[in-house]
Design goal:
The protein has 13 helices and six strands. By secondary structure, it is mainly α. α1 packs antiparallel against α3 and α6 runs parallel beside α9. The N terminus is likely disordered.
Length: 412
């Protein structure tokens, strides 16, 4: 099972708010003009975020049990079992892609901040927003992080950096009149605050997002970029590498599965071909940020902050109605309501790269309450693969620690 590979500036044309990548070209670094070349720079750097986001959504989905692997590779099976090894694909699946997304957008921020109209430059707002998302993704996914060969950073430090970037994106985007960037940045800001445990700030940022707002990671059906910019869930589904776990075969319209080909096809490791039906083409977009997510963030923040269940229970019943489940009739203590809120969130944002952060943020909620199979349940891996581990974060790979002087024995 393999996913996207590294790339830099590419060509992509599709629609998702005003954050599309539209025919970036080559920039001569020695002649860079923040005013003339800023859009090309910011959109090219944004492409690196889109690629990283897809990778994290796919492989983080394996760790969070949103997906089962149909691959035969031991490396992928270890990743799925949360049993990490330095010989596995941590660098190419997570770290290198996130590092490139951070570095390219941080470099774009630095260049665009020198522009005469930086305070109202939509391109600077876009680059700041994308840097914020990349930093926040690294904080949710990795056990710790590194930015541009610097020292090891804790998740809290990464989140602080993400918050700073989102704050800049909101300020500059507001001055530029870039409403979509401002709304997406406020979702990202609320997400980072929630992950950092700053619940009042999370609720405030979330409350600024219109309920109907949606921003997408844009994908492409171009044959020249299938391995990088096409919808990777669809790509890996049709190649027999992804399977829908039993807990997601629940008849909920938000988590569609396809079992129509089970009699004629199988995965690479022989599993029945019951797969995700959410993404059915190479060009299907993947939701990056939305007003719905902001509402979930506000409800969860209230539960964490003062144990208030009002907003959570209202949202739970609304979303259960969407999924055809009927009204919630379970316990109403804070932990039970949190578990059900995360259960509904797992359904609404299936295969959108959010569940791993949800699980890490809420260690007191049993995994089985959030659409995960019970411990000891039949596992999908080939015989001889490792048992499940308990680590829900990805270690920094040896490709970084071996090359980064900050990770020498003396430094550590």
């Amino acid at each position: 099972m393999r996913g996207p590979v590294l790339t830099c500036a590419v060509v992509l044309a599709a629609a998702a708010c005003n954050m599309d990548v539209t025919n970036p070209s080559v920039i001569d670094a020695g002649k860079f003009d923040p005013t003339k070349d800023g859009q090309t720079l910011s959109l090219s750097a944004q492409t690196n975020l889109y690629i990283a986001y897809q990778n994290v959504a796919v492989y983080g989905g394996l760790i969070a049990e949103e997906l089962w692997t149909g691959a035969v590779r031991l490396q992928t099976n270890r990743l799925s079992a949360r049993s990490f090894s330095s010989t596995d694909d941590i660098n190419t699946d997570f770290f290198a892609l996130l590092s490139l997304a951070i570095a390219s957008n941080e470099n774009a921020v630095t260049a665009l901040e020198a522009g005469a109209n930086a305070g109202s430059d939509a391109n600077l707002a876009r680059a700041s927003m994308n840097a914020g998302f990349a930093l926040e993704l690294m904080a949710e996914t990795m056990c710790s992080g590194v930015v541009q060969s610097g020292p090891e950073l804790s998740d809290a430090q990464l989140l602080d950096s993400a918050i700073a970037r989102f704050t800049t994106a909101v300020t500059v985007g507001t001055a530029a009149g870039a409403t979509d960037i401002v709304n997406a940045s406020n979702v990202g800001l609320a997400r980072a605050y929630l992950q950092a445990g700053q619940y009042a700030n999370a609720a405030t940022a979330a409350g600024l997002v219109p309920p109907s707002f949606i921003a997408n990671v844009v994908t492409s059906a171009s044959s020249s970029t299938l391995a990088t910019l096409s919808n990777q869930f669809h790509l890996l589904t049709i190649s027999g590498n992804l399977v829908a776990p039993v807990r997601y075969r629940v008849g909920d319209a938000r988590v569609p599965v396809d079992s129509t080909q089970v009699a004629t096809q199988s995965t690479l490791n022989g599993l029945p071909y019951i797969v995700q039906g959410k993404y059915t083409s190479y060009a299907d977009p993947i939701r990056l940020a939305s007003g719905l997510e902001a509402r979930y963030i506000a409800a969860e923040a209230a539960l964490h902050q003062d144990g208030s269940t009002t907003a959570a229970l209202a949202l739970i019943d609304e979303r259960r109605g969407v999924g055809g489940q009927g009204a919630y009739s379970g316990a109403t203590d804070t932990l039970s309501v949190m578990a059900e809120l995360l259960n509904q969130r797992a359904r609404d944002f299936w295969l959108e790269g959010k569940k791993l952060g949800d699980l890490r943020r809420n260690p007191s909620v049993p995994l089985t309450a959030v659409l995960a199979d019970p411990a000891g349940a039949p596992f999908y891996r080939p015989a001889g693969a490792p048992s499940f581990g308990s680590t829900l974060c990805v270690p920094i790979p040896p490709e970084e620690t071996n090359a980064n002087p900050n990770f020498s024995i003396a430094a550590r």
